[in-house]
Amino acid sequence: MTSPVAAAARVGRRALLIGFADFRSNHTAAEWLGGWALRLVFQVVFFASAGLLVGGDETVRYMAVGNALAVGVIESATSVLALGWERASGRLALMMATPGNHVAALLARQGSAPFQGLLSSTVVFLVVWGLFRLPVPGPSALLLLPVALLTFVSVYCYGLLIGVVVIRRPSAGWAALNVSYLLLMTFCGVNVAPGFWPGPITTVAQVLPVTHGIEAFRGLLAGRPLPWVAAQSGLELLVAMGWLAAAVLVLRAKLVADRRAGTLDFGG
Asked: pTM of whole model > 0.70?
């Protein structure tokens, strides 16, 4: 007999594969590189160049790295919209009428977003690395990709919880998305260090995604010891698990409430 965990993992894997299929059907390589990726490159170059107005080369490099990683943060945060899309399209009610782990399916449905973010950030990082002469240490550079992916997964989990909160109002999804990722870009170390802000904001930033992940990423570029990088990555993993656990609990409660009220198919 299949255990509940194994069954949930199987459902989540299939939902994830559907998400990747959606991504492939919506983009061609030429369209993605010549359109979306090019737009992201110009965005990051703009913000990094703005560093010339407030500092020297170190400020420019700091902002270049932060904004290259922020590209993936924005794409991963689209998980805010995922549950609203399912509800507004009527698929949520259909999914709830079928056997299986609905929570796993819903939470994994847009799970391709962190990988899309990793692809975008990698392309942008390679461009700004050449333009702004970013330092990249030798062997430890191989860890940049997994650290970035962990950061984007953490953002995805954060976005899921926010998406659950606004699931009954899909029309509010875009506003929630914009506010969500702008908070991360402002307070979690993209353009200025978290310690720049007043104490209470710095404290809250410690439990937000990106804060520890971007520190680990910058640490690798600066040649910090691997145990320090591992500690920061471990904190980012804990943050991701906390947001995911909260998303699971709140989503279960909302699905039960909507099923009892007969409002699963209300798009809002």
From this structure: yes
